[in-house]
Amino acid sequence: MLSRKCTGQFFQVLPGAGGRRGLCPRAPSQAPSVCPAVEGTALPLLAAYRTDEGQPWVLPVVKKVEQMIANDNSLNHEYLPILGLPEFRANASRIALGDDSPAIKENRIGSVQSLGGTGALRIGAEFLRRWYNGNNNTATPVYVSAPSWENHNSVFTDAGFKDIRTYHYWDAAKRGLDLQGLLGDMEKAPEFSIFILHACAHNPTGTDPTPDQWKQIAAVMKRRFLFPFFDSAYQGFASGSLDKDAWAVRYFVSEGFELFCAQSFSKNFGLYNERVGNLTVVGKDADNVQRVLSQMEKIVRTTWSNPPSQGARIVATTLSSPQLFAEWKDNVKTMADRVLLMRSELRSRLESLGTPGTWNHITEQIGMFSFTGLNPKQVEYMIKEKHIYLMASGRINMCGLTTKNLDYVAKSIHEAVTKIQ
Amino acid sequence: DSWWSHVEMGPPDPILGVTEAFKRDTNSKKMNLGVGAYRDDNGKPFVLNCVRKAEAMIASKKMDKEYLPIAGLADFTRASAELALGENSEAFKSGRYVTVQGISGTGSLRIGANFLQRFFKSSRDVYLPKPSWGNHTPIFRDAGLQLQAYRYYDPKTCSLDFSGAMDDISKIPEKSIILLHACAHNPTGVDPRQEQWKELAAMVKKRNLLVYFDMAYQGFASGDINRDAWAVRHFIEQGINVVLSQSYAKNMGLYGERAGAFTVICSDAEEAKRVESQLKILIRPMYSNPPLNGARIASIILNTPDLRKEWLVEVKGMADRIISMRNQLVSNLKKEGSSHNWQHITDQIGMFCFTGLKPEQVERLIKEFSIYMTKDGRISVAGVTSGNVGYLAHAIHQVTK
């Protein structure tokens, strides 16, 4: 007679390093051990927008469209196709590539509705592991920027890739892009290596290549047969302009690259928990893209079968109505403008205070995050003494700044920098 | 020239491909008996009343859209565990379980498969019943496990090959993984009786197997949620720490909202915490955190007494309609003058029925009658209505006489 104890031996499971349970449930490994709890000074660690009142913001256009959906009794909860809602897929890719994209005109694009940007990355990664650079070539090097969103590494590792490397990106000394290091790594990378590129609003540094720098990057990648896998989580959110934020992706397309672009609508639509994402595939021709999609379908089928419908409906409805689309762009600009304002206000305060160092990077960086340049000791001071939560890397979520807390945050940074070296 | 020149065209998905072919057909009498989605007696998708009410409650609350935790909506996962295990379950009350939200049944199965691949080092083999849901094999394979089979369906009797199953299971190497359909076996509709479940439990315990239950039809099979969960609960009571995948696609009609859950019964609450932390590490690089909408609807229904009562009535209504269609199909076949024994149609349970039709006969049904089903002769009884059951019986008789 077996006792329950025997079956307990099945799992030799050690606690995971996923962060303190119940506190920072999604905190990456380097997150401080306590979540923001102090009102007025709490800066959300995670990538979520906040209003000037420090509150989450459901976009007005989203509220409107949700009401439309709720009132539409003809809608049901039937399964979506495996690759997702057709109107969503087409519109989502159109947003990334542009209305006048040659790739769309030439019918050589494909789309896979995915569970957020993460899901899109994962489907793309699984496909590449199976079909890129041979069959099931798990040895193909995958390059992730140093630093990058920490989940990039896990996505490609879990997809089966054995050789994840970093490429130079952030120059801590000059607080900017290490272009020479980046290009150098690309020159040295084995041919056919996969490079994860942040389309805009690099996470966590907020530092993007200029158009000229992107051109240099593209030239090297083309010459060395490197595969561009764009991660586009902040389109529209970074500069306030959808087109400007998609410039890099579209440039690569115009240069004839075959590429993947993982899109997230979590931030720019504020649809975080609905898991709305899209994997855009750009290929040489329709036939190739069709075959790629047919294989991606098989991958989707064993991962989640078919994607969730609510978020996709909201996005599809919004993007396919000129009026709602205009409203959405306006809502996006509202968010982007508030972040840009907070950046300029923080910088000017630091400069007025005479805080040691240069602070132009605060306004030169873009998107939700900023690499302040604070070192781990200074970060600890901010957390322990000032109850302002940032990552040990010095990454701050600009969305957490409000007109009410700007002075406090600026003074705190000033203190940290002057007191702690 | 292209990176993808060597990429082969993937074969169309056999199950969902049936619906696609059905859509293209212009015959007004066409019937879609392919995919397992419930239809009302008018052949229309059915949105449950309790779902509409839950949605109205959600709309009125004007909640934000912040990310869920990786493990999902806590009210949902707790209610899901209680639904499966029963409120009086010792395992539930003691907290020696972990339930994470999954992307409906498939996503929950996949999380479990990945978890077993990473942490169940005793074996790489998953034993599936013969036959099983077509997607089980690629799910486990993509997770890095190997597939084996045990006898289950007896095509001669269109019922359970119990002695064959027991014989095969008795020979499964210790500490292998065995998958069991908790109720309403897909695709056959053939379930063990309770006495047979008892023997199966004793056998898997004797063989020290890791039991993986797939429960996609709780409530939908017999109309009684407790009856449909009987096997899962019995196994746990026998000291078998099962893992379990649940889906709310059919029993709440939440198909496209992707509401599901994966549960691990553990030795104690402390082990459950460790297991949960590892499940989260698996989920994060897959899709970060799960979608809220379906889980919230399910949670409100399960946790609001009036809505829960209403749900139980509605799910019984769906189950009853299916049972009624089974009865009508058999009586219509008799009326057509069929000499075959069609008792298995009413003996089988749940959404699906293994008709016993051969591929050539299925082919004829599709081509000559525009009646669509999968090649294995599986029909979704949910696609049968009082309006078309006569036509279906007629067609089946034509291809089998």
From TrEMBL, chain A:
One Pfam family named in its UniProt record: Aminotran_1_2
Record-level GO BP terms: aspartate biosynthetic process
Note: In eukaryotes there are cytoplasmic, mitochondrial and chloroplastic isozymes.
SUPFAM superfamilies, sorted: PLP-dependent transferases
Names of required cofactors: pyridoxal 5'-phosphate
InterPro entries to which the protein is assigned, alphabetical: Aminotransferase_I/II_large (IPR004839), Asp_trans (IPR000796), NHTrfase_class1_PyrdxlP-BS (IPR004838), PyrdxlP-dep_Trfase (IPR015424), PyrdxlP-dep_Trfase_major (IPR015421), PyrdxlP-dep_Trfase_small (IPR015422)
One GO cellular component, as annotated: cytosol
Classification via NCBIfam families: PRK09257.1
Main location: cytoplasm
Protein name: Aspartate aminotransferase
Catalytic activity: (2S)-2-aminobutanoate + 2-oxoglutarate = 2-oxobutanoate + L-glutamate; 3-sulfino-L-alanine + 2-oxoglutarate = 3-sulfinopyruvate + L-glutamate; L-cysteine + 2-oxoglutarate = 2-oxo-3-sulfanylpropanoate + L-glutamate; L-aspartate + 2-oxoglutarate = oxaloacetate + L-glutamate
UniProtKB/TrEMBL annotation, chain B:
Superkingdom, natural source: Eukaryota
Cofactor field: pyridoxal 5'-phosphate
InterPro entries (alphabetical): Aminotransferase_I/II_large (IPR004839), Asp_trans (IPR000796), NHTrfase_class1_PyrdxlP-BS (IPR004838), PyrdxlP-dep_Trfase (IPR015424), PyrdxlP-dep_Trfase_major (IPR015421), PyrdxlP-dep_Trfase_small (IPR015422)
Biological processes, Gene Ontology terms: L-aspartate catabolic process
Assigned EC number: 2.6.1.1
One Gene Ontology term, aspect cellular component: mitochondrial matrix
Reactions catalysed: L-aspartate + 2-oxoglutarate = oxaloacetate + L-glutamate
GO MF annotations, alphabetized: L-aspartate:2-oxoglutarate aminotransferase activity; pyridoxal phosphate binding
PROSITE patterns (alphabetical): AA_TRANSFER_CLASS_1
The keyword Disulfide bond appears for this protein: no
Keyword annotations: Aminotransferase, Mitochondrion, Pyridoxal phosphate, Transferase
Location of this chain's protein in the cell: Mitochondrion matrix
Primary location: mitochondrion
Occurrences of domain Aminotransferase class I/classII large (ranges): 29-396
Further information: In eukaryotes there are cytoplasmic, mitochondrial and chloroplastic isozymes.
Subunit structure: Homodimer.
UniProt similarity note: Belongs to the class-I pyridoxal-phosphate-dependent aminotransferase family.
PANTHER family xref list: ASPARTATE AMINOTRANSFERASE, ASPARTATE AMINOTRANSFERASE, MITOCHONDRIAL
Name of the molecule in the record: Aspartate aminotransferase
Lineage: Eukaryota, Metazoa, Chordata, Craniata, Vertebrata
